[in-house]
């Protein structure tokens, strides 16, 4: 794998991780989770 | 791989101790790392979403909340108790076998959860089967193989990356589970989770083959456990790990309620937990990276100390949106960062041959702490109407763990005189 392809791969992975993280974070704040939040966490 | 022991010395031997799964086949360290990360993501993440099923399942099946809560408590107990045995089997017969069995049990547990209509059936599925599945597919087994697949200079970072995979799973699987329940109902959601957790089975192929790493002087497993048992540092590490379990689970379970008690909106509780989850991914990787460059015991000491300072400042200062966010970010950065460092330190001191076994014994301490943290938080709140005592206890335990890490002798056991116990 040459240098530019490697760089592109990392940029793609970072962008994907950022997108999923954003979507997940928004998911935490949606009404369904907010209503159930007290049930959501346990040991 | 031919041993070079005796030709290049012990340090060189450890570098040569990279598993057989490199270069000669497709199971390169990078593949092991990627598959291990996804396995941890699935096993830890799926479990994280179980709490979401409490309300709809209890309501539909006419159960009291205790039925559900007891099965989940049983799950954690089974996980903790079975973990050392899972580690031993992985070290003795190969990690792939235990991962395949664990993946199958996890899947079976989720399927049976969906069709459980009595408390007993739910205890067997969600409690026993999923607990056994977790013991064979979580940190102890996966990190043991990853630890062996990388040379010492890269091991800590690799453990940090695989730990970050588990953290990422914990972060994203909760909203994912909620979407599934909202769209398809709880029964179909459990079946979808069962299918996704079954991926652990094919991914286990990357872990096939027994460890080719030689123990010190052909050390047996029993000798390795005895050696760890006489090493005071191992017990200090386990005690500190117990504190980690206590603090994290207490905060995870009780922080949202604490914030509401302090007059914050429920959305702040969710934001706090999301921030912890997000920063946990960064923290897991960062701690693993730092562990490769600095003393792991001092890093662990810093983590426990930092947590105590953060807890004390959080309860002493007025609780605001910003103080909650900063507290959550600091906690997140130190959340599972203890795992790659503890695992890496066990590998550094005792070698990687029985890493799954020894780390799993330490992890049992973590689970005991988890149980105590969840229970003591609720007990003290019911008894006093406040979490203040538990916060103070959590901070004090953090200081204790910070101190306990300092005298640990990080030297490799083989390089120490074996006639007497060492710190």
Your description of this structure?
The complex is a heterodimer of chains A (43) and B (423). Chain A is mainly alpha-helical. Chain A has 2 helices and no strands. In chain A, 19% of the residues are buried. With 423 residues, chain B is mainly α. Chain B is 77% helix and 0% strand. Chain B is built from 18 helices and no strands. Chain B has helices spanning 9-16, 29-48, 54-61, 65-93, 95-114, 119-137, 139-149, 152-184, 186-197, 200-203, 221-229, 232-261, 266-291, 296-316, 321-334, 338-350, 355-384, 388-405. Chain B is globular, with a radius of gyration of 21 Å. Classes of the chains: A mainly alpha (43), B mainly alpha (423).
Salient structural properties:
A: 43 residues; mainly alpha; 2 helices; B: 423 residues; 18 helices; 77% helix; disordered N terminus
SSE diagram, text form:
The complex is a heterodimer of chains A (43) and B (423).
Chain A: H1 3-28, H2 31-36
Chain B: H1 9-16, H2 29-48, H3 54-61, H4 65-93, H5 95-114, H6 119-137, H7 139-149, H8 152-184, H9 186-197, H10 200-203, H11 221-229, H12 232-261, H13 266-291, H14 296-316, H15 321-334, H16 338-350, H17 355-384, H18 388-405
Q: What's the SSE pattern of chain B?
A: HHHHHHHHHHHHHHHHHH
- Give the C-alpha Rg of chain B: 21 Å
Which segments of chain A are poorly predicted (pLDDT under 50) over 5 or more consecutive residues? none
Largest sheet of chain A: none
